[in-house]
Amino acid sequence: MKKKTVGQPKSGDGDTVHSPLVTYASMISLLTLCPPFVILLWYTMTAADGSVSETWNYLKQNGVQGFLDIWPRPTATAYKIIVVYGLFEAALQLLLPAKTVYGPISPTGHQPVYKANGVAAYLVTLITYMALWWFGIFNPTVVYDHLGEIYSALIFGSFVFCILLYIKGHLAPSSTDSGSSGNIIIDFYWGMELYPRIGKYFDIKVFTNCRFGMMSWAVLALTYCIKQYEENGKVSDSMLVNTALMLIYVTKFFWWEAGYWNTMDIAHDRAGFYICWGCLVWVPSVYTSPGMYLVNHPVNLGIQLAISILLAGILCIFINYDCDRQRQEFRRTNGKSTVWGKAPSKIEASYTTTTGETKRSLLLTSGWWGLSRHFHYVPEILAAFFWTVPALFNHFLPYFYVIFLTILLFDRAKRDDDRCRSKYGKYWKLYCDKVPYRIIPGIY
């Protein structure tokens, strides 16, 4: 019988990611509410002036039929854009020169091996996209003009993709980190495999999370900027600040991509509807939505305010990066690196794998990681606020991503704490005694 990975729902014997009620509520919400929300978000941002009340009044007057009328049908153009983009990113993932990187050892003793070429793929993608526009080969405004159709195609196409992942997990799992909970809905939602692959080197979660999802964030940020330029003959300072901060953040992500492969998304959450549909659909639509709003709502901030917001956003992104860098360096040197110029404070913890093997871990309790157990979420949320605030406060909807991100990260912090408590036992209690706050120092 195959073992379950830590953090995945089990059947009947205990630990789930959340309580059964919350687990099923989240599954039902994602499966039923998120797809129509993506379409309503796009419609409101592009056709209803960003006004939630205008969309609400439309739906109240026209009912279900009105909603069906605004849902764009997937078109050949939309599928062509998605397929070409997906194949291009897959080719870069497979073919670009790469450094070999090893992921964390799983509870079953499996250690994934990755090809780390994210920065190269990122640069090639953006340079190619801009060159296609500059030389008149492809106009990115086509992507914006077919955005609703693209999101619609992604909604349905990603659902089929997740069905195929579910079938693969049953018939041809890639590693020992796979198995069934005994519940078909949970297996589809949370996933069957932790590290699904096609062949030896094409890691599916790296593709969905990084090379399709995160890469599309940068591509769409540029698309919105170009669309505004094509429409108005110039780019507003608000759009420049928004685009610059988003690109800096995504650049930081790819610079740190190998570190991301050690996070909960990759090392603990399986490749199911929750992760894969979210990265293929939710990231391109929701995460980029402040820029989508600014296309038709340029705001003149003025040089002083624009520079102030830009610098504040850059500072938050840097602190977020430095938090991750500090912990990575601590792990890489086995606790022998300096933290803020001093020897690090740490707790030596041990844990037992599912195979009965005893392992050792070091828990950092100084630097950023002495302020709170998940302090890196604070600058991440603030960075999202700063690339949204150029839209000012005429409408609530541009801030949906900031609110969603806050809820997501607070939930993730709890899930990570629960997982670590189960993994480290008494050592985690010592860690929490030394670092008592979960996210916000002095408050929570």
UniProtKB/TrEMBL annotation:
Family: Belongs to the ERG4/ERG24 family.
UniProt EC number: 1.3.1.21
Provenance organism: Vigna radiata var. radiata
Keyword Lipid biosynthesis among record annotations: yes
Keyword presence, Endoplasmic reticulum: yes
Keywords: Cholesterol biosynthesis, Cholesterol metabolism, Endoplasmic reticulum, Lipid biosynthesis, Lipid metabolism, Membrane, NADP, Oxidoreductase, Steroid biosynthesis, Steroid metabolism, Sterol biosynthesis, Sterol metabolism, Transmembrane, Transmembrane helix
Protein name, per record: 7-dehydrocholesterol reductase
Coiled-coil region(s): none
